[in-house]
Specification:
460 residues, Rossmann fold, Helicase, Ruva Protein, domain 3, five-stranded parallel β-sheet, 58% helix, elongated
């Protein structure tokens, strides 16, 4: 299942929800570049809380003006050397389109350099590579130098602008135009309309109260709202307000996709633990998300094997917790599935895959009706022969085979166990035979009613 935040990412700046004034300033800055001149502020800082639309606005801007995008994000090691190799080189020189066409800057054919999550990665002190060197050493200085000499537009995207501007980032305050994206500038109605468009595109019938609830709950975090809609609609087409219980009532400061990025992209155990606590994701659910997505992140076979080894050990603890009701074991399971998977990698991967919803959960949701039917039949069998449902399940498949081969047995058990039409169809897997049995039973019942009426008349 594709992440809907990527599937429905805005294609134009007008499609970005809310923050009209910020979008207007961003467009005005881009128009100066598009005229073939270099503006006074060669770079823009887009600041605001996660999920509010900063990255979407940058990508949509590039699409509106036909610019080629050169992007560095959290999955890249962004030290001074790499900044100069990728961003600075791209900012100074001309470029080619994907089709090979030469794009001349003097005619407005630009590249847009995007440095995402700039506040989190540059000059950080907590993450080290295998040789013990700081991953982002000198990054801010290289960014400042790049902006001073760039001939291409640059956008820095941050959640905490003060983290970016402190220390070596102080010159960015005067070099860049700062545009703030504010959740208060996004109206509830705008989010509802955006979610409604997604619902229609997916063929969903969603109660309006559900859309309003999700829009109010996200507090301006559009990404969180879209993912809430995706979660609540998994395996179903009609979504009523009764299904809101799936989302729970916790504070969505950290969502599961952010937790996955923290696990796969860092080795910082303390930070990972804080992310999980903030998301309030229980270990039974978290292990499914990690197991589903780790193959797309860890491309080295040995790293993947180490990750699955830790996941399997975590699953052992989860199993013991379920059997013994000793949920203190969840802590050990969480350390293995999150911290264990994080340190299982020997290197960092530059890939940024789309995280998928756990396929196991989707299958369980889609098969719920079938499992409920089986459970109902097992209950009737266990009651009739005085055994547990678990014991009845051991020979259930044999009973199904016998009933499929012998219609008389099927008819007898249908009557004895009082099986419904849906339950018989589950057992026999043949609609024609089921219809035949029920028509015969209805005919027999009709004849018996006639006989009763005759007997009643003879009495009078």
């Amino acid at each position: 299942m594709l992440d809907w935040t990527e599937k429905y990412r805005p294609k134009t700046l007008d499609e970005v929800v809310g923050n009209e004034q910020a979008k207007s300033r961003l467009r005005k800055w881009a128009e100066e570049w598009d005229k073939g001149v270099i503006p006074l502020k060669r770079a823009v800082i887009l600041a605001g809380r996660p999920g509010i639309g900063k990255t979407s606005a940058a990508l949509a801007l590039a699409n509106d003006f036909g610019w080629v995008v050169v992007e560095m994000n959290a999955s890249d090691v962004r030290n001074a050397e790499n900044i100069r190799k990728i961003a600075t080189h791209g900012a100074i020189h001309e470029t080619f389109s994907d089709s090979g066409e030469f794009l001349k800057s003097t005619r407005g054919r630009r590249k847009l350099i995007i440095l995402d999550e700039a506040d989190n990665l540059y000059e950080r002190r907590s993450s080290e590579d295998t040789s013990g060197n700081l991953l982002d050493k000198g990054g801010k200085r290289a960014i400042v130098d790049t902006i001073k000499e760039t001939k291409q537009p640059i956008i820095l995207i941050v959640n905490d602008i003060y983290e970016l501007l402190k220390g070596g980032g102080e010159p960015l305050r005067t070099l860049c135009e700062i545009i703030r994206f504010d959740e208060r500038k996004i109206k509830i109605g705008e989010i509802v309309n955006y979610l409604r468009r997604i619902s229609r595109s997916e063929g969903l019938n969603v109660d309006s109260e559900v859309l309003v609830y999700i829009a109010e709950r996200c507090r301006g975090d559009i990404r969180s709202a879209v993912r809430d809609l995706q979660v609540i609609s998994a395996g179903r087409k009609n979504i009523s307000k009764e299904m809101l219980r799936i989302l729970g009532y916790r504070d969505r400061e950290q969502n599961i996709f952010d937790v996955l990025r923290e696990i796969f992209k860092t080795r910082n155990i303390s930070s990972i633990h804080r992310s999980i606590q903030s998301s309030d994701e229980d270990p039974e659910s978290l292990i499914l998300w990690i197991a589903e997505n780790v193959p797309y992140e860890y491309l080295d076979a040995s790293d993947l094997a180490n990750a699955y080894e830790n996941l399997s050990r975590a699953d052992v603890f989860l199993g013991r917790a379920r059997r013994t009701r000793s949920f203190v074991l969840w802590g050990y399971a969480q350390d293995l599935m999150a911290g264990g998977v994080a340190v299982a990698k020997r290197r960092f991967y530059p890939v940024q895959p789309r995280y998928n919803f756990p396929s196991w959960l989707i299958e369980m949701k889609s098969s719920k009706e079938s499992r409920d039917l089986r459970s109902s039949i097992l209950g009737k069998i266990s009651k009739f022969i005085h055994c547990s449902k678990r014991k009845a399940n051991e020979f259930f498949d044999m009973i199904c085979k016998m009933m499929r081969k012998d219609e008389n047995l099927a008819r007898s058990l249908m009557f004895v166990l009082d099986l419904s039409k849906e339950e018989m169809l589950y057992i026999l897997q043949d609609e024609t035979v089921v219809e035949k049995l029920y028509k015969a039973e209805e005919k027999k019942e009709g004849e018996m009613q006639k006989e009763r009426k005759i007997e009643q008349k003879s009495l009078f």
